[in-house]
């Protein structure tokens, strides 16, 4: 069989997702993880849960109830996914396209649309990376599924509640990706009773430090959730992930303490970077900066020489400059990072 002859034609040209790099022995600041790691209680729970991995996951409903309680909504408003990545996929499977997002933003919206044979279009952010409301509303005429990311990855800024509401007023299914919600403390949740086209997605990968276990959730009206659930594979979230989430939600104090430390260090790091480069204000756990006249790759290499792995984007099409994104790590990692920055 010539495998390529049998493939769906739209799969052929798809560029796969490029994750932040991991280099053994270096501090990873390339994937916006929480480098403090999960609550020690989560580690204990996981150790005790290993013997039960022969069972299929069976705590779906409990995780849903506890997640809903954390978010301040009813369980019927929530669906749990294998990372928010899976929720993006299930949402794309559920709704008609074409889909629309902004550039630069999280690349999975385009990749997942493409793998599902859905056309995806992008509206360029304004020069200062703020949300281009007028252009977006115009482009949304031709789209049926809209992706907003707030705080936006990789720029770190939020979309104003007023702009989000203007987009929701179009009445089209609209995803507001709040992967970094705990860091910004800003959410579109209060709009949910008014807009049944709003779908918020969040994750346990960032503030809760459970990236490796893959758990995210979406919040929407019960009707929309019941539609998305039709596309969900059974047992999409594994036993250990379920146990970890339940324990993490019982130890919110640990998560909130991490978030406070990371936010305080974000300000210090922002100042330190701004001595060398143009850095963009962020409400997430990362900072984007323009490395010019240094190329992003050269900047990456210089950080790697100091045992730090950052994320080099290079240039963003249509924008001047060269871009690197750095995750705010732990306080002790930051102290060494400041010294590395001095030497750049
Ligand atoms: C904006 C945004 N959405 C979603 C995700 C995916 O998160 P998860 O690990 O829950 O799949 C990421 C991960 O970096 C992200 O930055």
How would the blueprint of this fold be written?
Blueprint: H1 3-6, E1 27-28, H2 40-49, H3 60-71, E2 78-81, H4 83-94, E3 99-103, H5 108-115, E4 120-124, H6 133-139, E5 145-149, H7 161-168, E6 174-177, H8 181-184, E7 198-203, E8 216-219, H9 222-229, H10 239-250, H11 252-274, E9 278-279, E10 286-290, H12 296-305, E11 308-309, E12 311-314, E13 323-327, H13 331-342
Helix pairs in contact: 2-10, 3-10, 4-5, 11-13
Bound molecules: pyridoxal-5'-phosphate.
Care to describe what's here?
It is a single chain. The protein has a seven-stranded mixed sheet with strand order 2-8-7-6-5-3-4, with helices on both faces. Helix 2 runs antiparallel to helix 10, helix 3 runs parallel beside helix 10 (239-250) and helix 11 runs parallel beside helix 13 (331-342). The longest helix is centred in the last third of the chain and has 23 residues, at 252-274. The chain is built from 13 helices and 13 strands. It has 344 residues and is of the alpha/beta class. The mean pLDDT is 96. The site of pyridoxal-5'-phosphate has 13 residues, from helix 4.
Strand order of the largest sheet: 2-8-7-6-5-3-4
What gross morphology would you assign?
A: globular
How much helix is in the residues? 25-40%
The helix/strand series, from N terminus to C terminus, equals HEHHEHEHEHEHEHEEHHHEEHEEEH
Quaternary structure of the protein:
single chain
Major sheet description: 7 strands, mixed
Helix- and strand-based class? alpha/beta
Q: Radius of gyration from the CA trace?
A: 20 Å
**Percent range for β-strand residues:** 15-25%
Number of helices: 13
Distance between the termini: 53 Å
